[in-house]
Amino acid sequence: MSNNEQETKLVVITGMSGAGKTVAVHSFEDLGYYCVDNLPPALLPKFLELMKDSTNNIHKVALVMDLRGREFFDSLFEALDILGKEDWLDEHILFLDAQDESLVTRYKETRRSHPLAVGGLPLNGIQQERKILDELRGRAQRIIDTSNLKPKALRDKILKAYTEDKQEIFSVHMVSFGFKYGVPIDADLVFDVRFLPNPHYVSHMQPLTGLNPEVSSYVFKWGDTKKFNEKVLDLLQFMLPQYKKEGKSQLVVAIGCTGGQHRSVAIAEYFAKQLSSNYITHISHRDIDKRKGH
């Protein structure tokens, strides 16, 4: 291994235009990464030669590589294939995403044109870009949904994720949500628990949440719930080591019910607790306070 016999960390920052790549690259600069914004994929082989040069002392690099057209995208895939063959590199793809509505709002606020719809409607460019980037999104080790993140919150999220000395640390993020508000776009696995008895129809439980012991007891007392928990937990315990071996640093598991207030909250809490003995676990309840009156 060259480059002073030390493995070089390379983070490729990519994703939807307008999803926060500028904030991301500034965050990596704060972490001490050597950053290059909008590196053309065709120049990557030459750049790798410079990185591999044993006379330099660069061991942490972040590259922003985004979309400028279909030809650019094809070159990007060729470049990523090259990265996978370099055993002296610890490469990692960070994909920034956001919902269409959020991206349209950002383009309107900045009065910028989308790179794929210059002079046209931003939404047309966004939808075209999303189709083109779908395969790249699937190759990413980490996906961050910036739809509801302020720049500071995105920066804090990146700093927290990449400050670790060892990026191979694997974590599981359990997210509860309501289908009526849409499926989380950064979810790797989605489980639908709307088939379970709903505490919403027990009048005194309506204003409560799955964090309440009475609500969780109601959710877990049914045979179908117990069977579901057993089967899904068995599936997760089989799949998580495979995801970890494949190189993912985080797996987002989303549990959805109708409103994201009762069933999904209780079950997400249960799975997080069960997995916490073997994995770093995080939990968030996206829609727990979106019910009427909150």
From TrEMBL:
GTP binds at residues 66-69. Residues 9-164 form the RapZ-like N-terminal domain. Residues 171-289 form the RapZ C-terminal domain. The keyword Transmembrane does not apply. InterPro entries: P-loop_NTPase (IPR027417), RapZ-like (IPR005337), RapZ-like_N (IPR053930), RapZ_C (IPR053931). Keywords: ATP-binding, GTP-binding, Nucleotide-binding. ATP binds at residues 15-22. Pfam families: PapZ_C, RapZ-like_N. The keyword Secreted does not apply. PANTHER family: RNASE ADAPTER PROTEIN RAPZ. This is UPF0042 nucleotide-binding protein. It comes from Virgibacillus subterraneus.
